[in-house]
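Quick one from the shared queue. A colleague (R.T.) flagged Transcriptional regulator, LysR family as missing a structural entry in our internal table.

Convert sequence to structure tokens.
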Amino acid sequence: MRGFDWDDIQAFLAISRAGRLTVAAQQMGVDHSTLSRRVAALEAALGVKLFDRSSLGFVLTPEGERVLSDAESMESLALRMRHRLDDASIGLTGSVRIGTPEGFGTYFLAPRIAQLSSAHPNLEIELIANPRMFSLSKREADLAVSMTRPAQGRVYAHKLTDYALGVYASKEYLTKHRKIATRRDLLAHPWVGYVEDQMWSAELNYLPQISNTLVPTIRISNVISQAAAVSGGVGLGVLPCFIAHTEPNLVRLFRDEIALSRSYWLVTLAETRDVARVRLLADFIREECAGDWFLHD
């Protein structure tokens, strides 16, 4: 086997994660023909075919799957070396990216970023608040907030907090529609829920905890839009209390009888968790989540 360039490994990793040559090239900031040549060079050096190419994109071959694990280990080692040098030479500068669920990122973390930014003006913070899981091994983020504890991977998970959820309706809806006096009355009203195939975590399946017969008539893919719909009077919905309390038009129903809870976990990658800027952001989030802020409405 002849030698290969580290750039070839990076090209391989980029394509395996993006699935498409053009997308990977854009992410790496190189021409797609350059990326193609690098992968071809790596295949020639290893003597194996790494991808099956089709109109749908690039799919790893069995040999490519085996190479992927070693390539990610090489990448992890390179990252550790680079971050250790960064910490020693430039301190708390550079970029750190956190991926969070949209509710946590929008209503909790975003308003607090100013505290961190003013204390560390040379630190670049990237917040991705989207309704999905983030893969740290694919370098989608440096750390992430998840609704479940990861079951596998080279990651560390720390429970941040539990948070409360309740059943809500708008004041206008309650004055214009059939009275809700008992839990049974809930079944006679329209409900807002998740688009089933967009429910990115099983923890979002709230309605069976209210009643096994509840089926949403309005399905929305993210909690922020759900809160807006319920506030607008479209029907009833289960919402995190820390989001609902920002909408003065919302009223919580059966506060004592229907009290749901979920958890947030902070996840960091094993090889970067001790990098100064990653550790700083992780510590900041843990400190801000302390107390009972998420349990109040």
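The chain has three domains: 6-87, 89-161+263-291, 162-262.
Residues 89-161+263-291 form a domain with the D-Maltodextrin-Binding Protein; domain 2 fold (CATH 3.40.190.10).
Added to the table.
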